[in-house]
Design brief:
The protein is α/β, with parallel strands linked by helices. It has a single domain, classed as Rossmann fold (3-Layer(aba) Sandwich). 34% of the residues lie in helices and 17% in strands. The protein is built from eight helices and eleven strands. The strands form two sheets. An eight-stranded mixed sheet has the order 1-4-7-5-8-9-10-11, with helices on both faces. β2 and β3 form a beta hairpin. α3 packs across α5. The longest helix is centred in the first third of the chain and has 23 residues. It is globular, with a radius of gyration of 20 Å.
Length: 287
């Protein structure tokens, strides 16, 4: 009878130790502008987190943009990196199925991934703009990763963006409007270019505004047949823009998918394998 408390204490210790290691192993956010993002001056209020019925995290009221790094094991590293921009209609960010789940898969396959938390232009009373503040956050994220590429075992010429829905709009903008590095800048992040080396646009919003030139980065385009017409039809038209410009592009349409599928455990249809197609594409473009 005296052994029971000892066993219980031992079990409790094991659980606490496991929990401690789990917390310690979780990647931590890195602020993109430690002293405050341009355009966020005077913004107050804590970030809001909403939990859906399925237990997913949805963020809003974002004034401090950041990236959360998921670095692969060194023996698996491909030296490729992807900035992952979740969607949410520029009103919120669905950071699990279009962010952290994606990043975990990528890092498990040797690809460094960084979940981007960007400012939201369309939530109530927001003064932010998509093509100004959200874009600036994406540009800064690419520059930040490129500035630390050697430290993280990343090839600075193989850093791309992946965006979902509204995040796809932001990713596409970052490939259209990028800043060249200023080698004389005091901030080392500003010394490198924000141009992504490739872009993955997953059911992107505002597809009609996606511009393509012969200098555009190669593109991986993906959507569901049952998505709304501006995406399910519009993305096909975007593919033709890449084709006409002579820019390598790959386009996938999943017949049984709609909008917002991302990466979830409950996805069991053919669309659940789309990340493997992206990984194959990365190996083929050698960009």
């Amino acid at each position: 009878m005296r052994k029971k408390p000892i066993i219980q204490l031992s079990l409790l210790f094991t659980l606490l130790l496991t929990a401690a290691f789990t917390v310690a192993d979780e990647p931590k956010e890195i602020p993109l502008w430690p002293k405050g993002a341009p355009g966020s001056d005077g913004k107050v209020g804590d970030e809001k987190v909403r939990i859906t019925q399925d237990g997913e995290h949805v963020l809003s009221n974002i004034h401090h943009p950041s990236i959360t790094p998921y670095l692969p094991a060194k023996d698996k590293a491909t030296h490729v990196a992807v900035i992952v921009a979740p969607g949410g209609g520029h009103r919120e960010l669905w950071v699990d199925h279009e962010g952290h789940n994606v990043a975990r898969w990528l890092s498990g396959h040797g690809i460094a991934a960084f979940v981007l938390k960007y400012r939201l232009a369309r939530e109530p009373d927001s003064t932010y703009k998509v093509d100004e503040h959200a874009l600036a956050d994406a540009q800064r994220a690419i520059q930040y990763v490129r500035s630390r590429a050697e430290e993280w075992g990343i090839n600075p010429a193989r850093i791309g963006v992946m965006g979902f829905s509204a995040g796809g709009e932001v990713a596409a903008l970052s490939a259209i409007r990028f800043v060249e590095g200023n080698k004389e800048a005091a901030d080392r992040v500003e010394r490198v270019s924000s141009r992504p080396d490739f872009q993955a646009l997953i059911y992107p919003g505002n597809s009609g505004k996606i511009a393509v030139t012969k200098e555009s980065p190669p593109a991986f385009l993906l959507c569901g047949y049952n998505d709304r017409p501006d995406i399910s039809r519009g993305l096909a038209e975007v593919y033709l823009k890449f084709k006409d410009a002579g820019v390598p592009a790959e386009f996938h349409v999943y017949s049984a998918a709609g909008h917002g599928f991302g990466v979830r455990e409950k996805n069991h249809s053919a669309v659940s394998t789309w990340l493997a197609r992206f990984e194959e594409w990365l190996g083929e473009i050698k960009q």
